[in-house]
Amino acid sequence: MSDDDILLIRRKDAAKKSRERAERAVVVIPPCADKDRRLLLESDDIEWLEWYFGHGCGLEDPFTYSFTNQQRRMIKAIRDAITFGGDQALAASRGEGKTTLAERLVLKCTLSGELNYTVLFASTAGMADNLLDSIKTAIIDNERLAADYPEVCYPVRSLEGAPQKANTQRVNGERFDNGEFYEMAETRFSWCGQEVILPTVPGSPSSGAIIATRGLDSAVRGLKKRGKRPKLAIIDDPDTEDTARSEEQSKKLETRIDRAIGGLGGQQRGIGRVMLTTLQSRLSVSYTFTDLASKPTWKGERFRYLVHPPHRPELWQEYIQLYLSEIQDKDDTGTIINPHGRRSHAMYLANRASMDEGAIVANPNRFNGEILPDGSQVEVSSLQHYYNLIARLGPDAVAAEYDNDPPEETGPVASGISAALIQRQLSGLPMARIPDGCTVLTQGVDVGKWLLHWVVRAWKPDGTGYVIDYGRQDVGGALKYKSDLGLDKAIRNAVMRRIDEFRNATYAFADGSQIASAHHLTLVDAGYRTDAVYAACASSGLGVYPVMGFGKSLGCVKPSFTNAKHRTAVVIPGDNWKLAKNGNIWLCEAYADHWKAWEHDRWMTSTDKPGCLSMWGEHDEDRTRMSPDERSHTSYAHHICAEVEVEEPFKGGLRRRWKPVSKENHWLDASYYSDVAASIKGIRLTGPVTAKIPQAIPGVQGSKRTRPEDRPSLADLASR
Length: 720
Fold this sequence. Notes:
This protein is α/β, with parallel strands linked by helices. 36% of the residues lie in helices and 18% in strands. The strands form 5 sheets. A 9-stranded mixed β-sheet has the order 18-19-20-17-16-13-14-15-21, sandwiched between helices. A 7-stranded mixed β-sheet has the order 6-7-3-8-9-2-10. The radius of gyration is 33 Å and the shape is elongated.
């Protein structure tokens, strides 16, 4: 066989393989399953969404109930922006489905030909990618869309996970617009990167339409593709942790939305913008854009989860306390015994009519109806779900994230303390681990009628502190006993149980060793049911004292609370605290204003500096978002910020005072008690203490002096 013959055979073989590849690249697109249904549903956004994304669509997350009024308002806002342009800003509850609604309505308007270029913005590029992934999943997996929009779904599905095939794909089929047949049409679409370009199928209303995503942390100017400019911008949850707590960062993002995104439209028609968000704080961009006074053209609207509160809030407070006591109760292995709060659930079922009376929720479908092994449901109403959220997250977090009514910022003028800042102060260690170099272990306990709130800290000699454990403990007295005697007994037993659990806890260094009990100290709040707490401390032996706080923040400065210089048989002065003997009990009196400020200062000290405070847990690798450990400390952090120092005009000058921003301050009290305990044990900051205590009457009135040999030393007291 000659060389020419061999060359001819090779050419024929190559041509045959080329034809086979071309044949494999041809996708036969079936006709629309029901053209009349498709056109009819496209005339109504609600009907279209409920059919194509309802039960039976093939997706894992279909719409399962009729849209609420708030959800219909979101749909209308997007529709108005598409039809008329302009701006809309809507704040909805976390988990209300606003992102899913936006994605699916954008897809609807793109498939029908109303939108040829849409940009979906999220706070970061990673979040923006998630938006696009959801839209891709709908096109690939939704069986109802595949039936009625085959000109889009079949070319995409034929890629079989290989987006590069889109470059050579050809299609045969019947045009949607006039029914004429076409063949070997090049689809020329894109299915990867930050945007998708839908197939250019003859007769398709969405031929060549673009859906792009961008993070607000990246460049957004000059978006133009194939001669098209965006017609619609969806801005989904624009805030990050930084913009939610920093006025400066918030202003930068506000400028980007106003100028960069606002300038993306064409010369003859401006871009329509819709912001769908949840308010994290009053500093956030979302708060500004939904405020009619600040941004009137955005037509801001804020939706609440709880539209109207119930008439019997005291019953819900009792429910919350009972629920908290249940989800904190653990067995010997550390497993929560009753994670779903069955006793509180039974209380709600027994009193549901009274507890529901007057309440109006925006979405009655939002509750966990899962059936437990005992046959009961986890939750039976959206109202119950709301109050379970308050118990787990705290009232401030629910007010912001679910009712879009965030509390006033916690001290942006004076101290700058914030819950988010505290949540980011992590040690990188697991819970109950004592960091190397620590020499003292302290516990502060705040006593209430229903719950004890307690905090355990390990300390280095230079004042660096680590929260290694904290929690709530059920008292039970308010529910089990009606008499004062019964309540006192319940509180005494609860305090003693807490002391025993602290002493038996396995707080240890990495090598398993522990801090000796002689270097432990617990201070227990004696401001409520004082005699019961005194009795518990007296029965608990060494290393336990009752404590009372005094100061302007508490509305009282006790005359006998002094910065006395001299020790007596019944008074031992310290740094903004003193130990005073009351009968057989040594009571610690602490200047609360000083120690609360000291507490806040430690949280605002960077974790790479001595004298800082931090909690157990690790950060997310992407530091722009909160890690699960950071989120788990939400309630604790909000307690620490429940009172703040503020600076305000007063009589021609400025004064500083403590301002309560929430009633949930129990861990703040327990925390500063643990700070006082550390000071008693000799913990000192490396730098000077600058806080002052108020002038008071020197000395202790009515004290009886004893012989010098009868006076206990500070070391003796601190070891008790």
